[in-house]
Design a protein that fits this description.
heterodimer; A: mainly alpha; two-stranded antiparallel ribbon; 4 strands; globular; B: D-Maltodextrin-Binding Protein, domain 2; D-Maltodextrin-Binding Protein, domain 2; 2 domains; seven-stranded mixed beta sheet; five-stranded mixed beta sheet
Chain lengths: 393, 414
């Protein structure tokens, strides 16, 4: 489940109140605790740089192994895939010869503007994944933070055991976990048996394509899920009616969401825990002396200190959830009723099942653009606010 | 620093060009040099249904190796579609391999399959429908390795319990509905099968319709016959005397039959092996599917033995395939893992040896072969998805969507 990306946005060092940058200060003099370190200490007089040119060359020399590896195994394949996304290529010829027909942006047009099966499937997969992200990311972040706060309590007994227990799902193979979930959530499986004890008749989880929002609306009598009418059914976007967009994740998708939250929150708990332990005791102590309540401590001391880590967790979560593949591959491959179809799986299916590698790549690049947009947007929303002018009392 | 970034860009570009140029796998040489030596080494990639099949193929390959002097390595694929796609892209395909019918047209269109049909003198011996399925551009490309058809399998105990006798085996749609209603009681559903076109398609054939025309050049999905068929299935589903396998917590009809959740199911001859392995105590009878308004109809499935266009050992590979598709070998396979021979001559012998499989053997005379059109996989997957929702959807809409999606794929595919 942990994202396959190699470049993690690092938690910026600036959160460590009191801990200043390690340079630009004569070594040996520790920063006075509590005092803001010489954060943006300007290099007033840089040491005379001898042989700057030489340094540059040496620098390139030292990074060249990594640059070569990244270039050869990441940048080059990505550019090749970008080229393939402009072709009508069946994977059985040389994509860099005239055998593969160049079709320009046709693959993208099929997915975004041209009415047809491709667009409907793509829109469906986007809808499914959107609900998946909207539910999974806040839930897993919330659960992870709560768990981290619990196991960070110094008075808690058996912290080690609890930490291990919470972290355990993350180190288990996602394929194995998915298979176990398949059995748990069968129509006559353990979950439904447990539900029947309290008199609830559970759905046939993995075979239930009904959207939970539409079930909710249907239950309230606002729309008839079997036969939607009015503006919801009359208007459509990307080939899906508004009703289909708004019907929410299916029962089957909710099960996958549950699984994702369960497996990933352990990983993120670990990240939060590391950050929590990084908050200086002095900060909490001085807050305690000020007489803050526990909630205020969380709201005004701990959470602000966690902001960079929160950004990291949200970004990792966002990227991983938009790329969800293995659970879908094991649990349904789109079934029931295409409600567990995700762009990542659709990309695989177009390339390998339909021998349409061009379209598969096009889906991958639209997904890339989507993830980048989301990350930028999220970075903007979570940005460090510029210090307000000091209020005068 | 514009100067430095320009240098960096230049170096990157040069590195990429070098990398692209050096990758020998993207060579353009269309003609693969043929090996003419007397001792050739062949690789064979198969997607096995189980140990029995693996063993049978390996033994046959070893026997061929002994007879011909060539050596043969049989490899097992985990995901044959993906592995073949990869090997075609890398220009290092195995010499001979199983080709799934849903991928056949994609490979044939991409020029990865060596059409050896004209080198087979007795090709007429193979079932005509399957030959049509594995013909591309008017040429028989590869030989069907075996065949399977669909029939109606009935749980004997449940049948008797409902007070029915052998005389009540349904031969018409109306009779099928009557017995399904009678058999549905408590946990037992009259008819259970998978909600996909590879099962429900039999009703379309029985009504006289099908997804495409005979030579797979035009969509005929939105015909009145197909609508009639799906209307009939829908009425059965709505009455509760028919259910999809997933609705009764099973993966396929055979499991439902074995667990006693279904009194009848529509399944292929692989049921014999499946029941023997998982539910040896359950007694069942296979009877021909009932006839619809347009007479009898069923579906046939197969895989074919593909030979790679880019193989350096095409002649030897064809030789191997010939050896593997002799009547003798097919009958051996039938014994080993329960498939039916795709040669009509061998099929007759198979029928005398396996009287229980009579319904399936007889069905191959009027069976419809699989749809093999390039780029059709997603169309049919979508059709299956729609069929799963048949109880709540108008059959006309499902068929209209299929018609539209199929037409788009046909224009793109040809």
């Amino acid at each position: 489940m942990f994202p396959r990306t190699t470049s993690h946005p690092r938690p910026a060092a600036r959160s460590r109140a009191g801990g200043g940058p390690r340079t630009a200060d004569s070594p040996g003099t520790p920063d006075a605790p509590g005092e803001p370190g010489p954060a943006a200490a300007p290099r007033a007089k840089p040491a005379p740089r001898v042989g700057r040119r030489g340094e540059g060359i040496w620098g390139w020399l030292f990074v060249s192994p990594m640059v070569t590896i990244l270039g050869l195994f990441m940048v080059l394949p990505i550019l090749m895939a970008l080229w393939v996304s402009l072709l009508n290529w069946d994977g059985q010829s040389n994509p860099f010869s005239t055998d593969a027909q160049f079709v320009g942006l046709d693959n993208y047009r099929d997915l975004l503007t041209r009415d047809g099966l491709d667009r409907t499937l793509f829109a469906t997969s986007l809808r499914n994944n959107l609900y998946y992200v909207l539910l999974t990311v806040p839930l897993q972040t919330g659960v992870a933070l709560t768990l981290a706060l619990i196991v960070n309590q110094k008075l808690l007994r058996g912290r080690g055991a609890l930490r291990t227990a919470f972290f355990f799902p993350s180190v288990t193979s996602s394929i194995a976990v998915s298979t176990v979930f398949l059995f748990l959530f069968q129509g006559s499986g353990a979950v439904n048996t447990a539900l029947s004890w309290i008199g609830v008749k559970g759905p046939n989880w993995f075979n239930d394509p009904r959207g939970v929002l539409s079930l909710l609306l249907g239950g309230l009598g606002i729309v008839d899920p079997d036969d939607p009418s009015g503006a919801l059914a009359g208007h459509s976007f990307l080939g899906l009616s508004w009703f289909e967009w708004l019907s929410g994740p299916s029962v089957a998708m909710c099960t996958i969401i549950l699984l994702a939250v369960w497996t990933t929150s352990g990983t993120f708990m670990l990240i939060f825990l590391a950050a929590l332990q990084d908050i200086p005791r002095e900060l909490e102590e001085s807050a305690a002396i000020e007489g803050v309540s526990r909630f205020q401590m969380l709201r005004y001391v701990i959470l602000p200190a966690l902001r960079p880590v929160l950004f990291l967790v949200l970004t990792l979560g966002l990227i991983a959830t938009w790329q969800v593949f293995d659970q879908v591959y094991v649990m349904g491959q789109g079934a029931p009723g295409n409600t567990t179809l995700t762009p990542a799986f659709l990309s695989y299916a177009s390339a390998f099942d339909n021998a349409d590698f061009g379209q598969g790549m096009a889906i991958a690049f639209i997904l890339l653009a989507l993830i980048l947009t989301m990350t930028v947007l999220q970075r903007f929303l979570l940005r460090e606010r510029t210090p307000r002018p000091r209020r005068t009392r | 620093m514009p100067h430095r970034s320009a240098t960096a860009a230049l170096v990157t570009c040069a590195a990429m060009l070098a990398a692209t140029g050096c990758s020998s796998n993207f060579g353009d040489d269309k003609k693969t040099e043929q090996d003419t030596g007397s001792k050739q080494h062949l690789t064979v990639l198969i997607a096995s249904s189980g140990d029995a099949e693996t063993k049978a193929v390996k033994e046959a390959a070893a026997a061929y190796a002994k007879q011909s002097g060539n050596t043969v390595t049989v490899q097992l694929a985990k995901d044959i579609n993906q592995q073949l796609a990869q090997s075609f892209a890398g220009h290092k395909p195995p010499d001979a391999f199983y080709v799934n019918s849903d991928q056949f047209a994609n490979y044939a269109k991409g020029g990865s399959l060596y059409a050896y049909g004209d080198q087979i003198k007795d090709a007429d011996d193979f079932s005509a429908q399957l030959r049509t399925s594995f013909t591309y551009d008017g040429k028989l490309v590869c030989l069907p390795k075996d065949t399977s058809t669909l029939a109606l399998a009935i749980n004997d105990d449940l049948w008797k319990k409902a007070g029915l006798t052998e005389k009540d085996y349904p031969t018409t749609w109306a009779q099928l509905k009557t017995v399904a209603d009678k058999l549905t009681k408590g946990d037992v559903t009259g008819l259970v099968t998978s909600g996909e076109y590879a099962r429900l398609g039999v009703f379309m054939r029985q009504a006289g319709g099908w997804i495409t025309n005979d030579d797979q050049t035009k969509m005929t999905a939105d015909s009145a016959q197909n609508t009639e068929a799906l209307d009939y299935v829908r009425s059965l589903l709505k009455s509760g005397s028919m259910k999809y396998a997933s609705q009764v917590d099973t993966n396929w009809g055979g499991e439902a039959l074995g667990k006693g959740k279904a009194a009848m199911t529509i399944e292929g001859n692989w049921l014999i092996g499946g029941m023997k392995a998982d539910y040896p105590d359950v007694k069942y009878t296979a009877v021909p599917l009932p006839a619809g308004p347009a007479g009898e109809g069923t579906l046939a499935f197969s895989q074919c033995w593909g030979v790679a266009q880019e193989s350096a050992h095409r002649a030897a590979a064809v030789d191997l395939v010939k050896y593997l598709t002799t009547s003798e070998q097919m009958l051996k396979n039938a014994d080993a893992f329960g498939v039916m021979p795709s040669r009509t001559s061998a099929l007759a012998e198979y029928a005398t040896k396996n009287p229980d499989a009579k319904a399936w053997v007889d069905a191959s005379a009027h069976a419809q072969g699989p749809v093999t059109v390039a780029g059709f996989e997603k169309v049919l997957t979508q059709f299956n998805t729609d069929l799963a929702a048949l109880p709540n959807t108008d059959p006309k809409k499902i068929l209209a969507d299929l018609q539209r999606n199929g037409e788009q794929a046909l224009t793109k595919g040809n």
